[in-house]
Amino acid sequence: MRKILGLALPLFAVLGMTAVAAPSASAAQCGWYTEGRTGYHKHCGGTFILVKARWDTGFTYNTCQGPWSTIPFYPDGDHVQTGAWYVKTPPRVLTDVGGNKFCSASQPQD
Predict the structure, then answer these.
(1) How far does CA 56 lie from the centroid of its chain?
(2) pLDDT tens digit string along 1-19?
(3) Assigned domain for 5 exists
(4) Is 7 a member of any domain?
(5) Which of 15, 28, 74, 89 has the greatest CB tally within 10 Å of its CB?
(6) How many other CB atoms are found less than 10 A from the CB of residue 103?
(7) Is 31 in contact with 42 (CB distance < 8 Å)?
(8) Quick check: is 90 in a domain?
(9) Which domain holds residue 72?
């Protein structure tokens, strides 16, 4: 195995390849970002949070986001979501019999 790796690493260097790909700039950031017409909100924390999202029509709604997760906000026909951000109101979080926490289907709206 060592001999194979010893041969493969110089080959990677010659071909300009790397063994591990670096994440894209948008995937590495926390908060709101877009890729094409799809928006994303990445939560870089260990708690459940409430996130407010806005459509290009001005309509807003709240959704729960779990720890260390990324939510995709897909376009709907001609309309796209233009932003999502943390709000201070705590989300409704449920706990199952095994002690696992998850977001409730309904969330506080302001």
Answers:
(1) 20
(2) 445 445 444 444 444 443 4
(3) no
(4) no
(5) 89
(6) 18
(7) yes
(8) yes
(9) 24-103
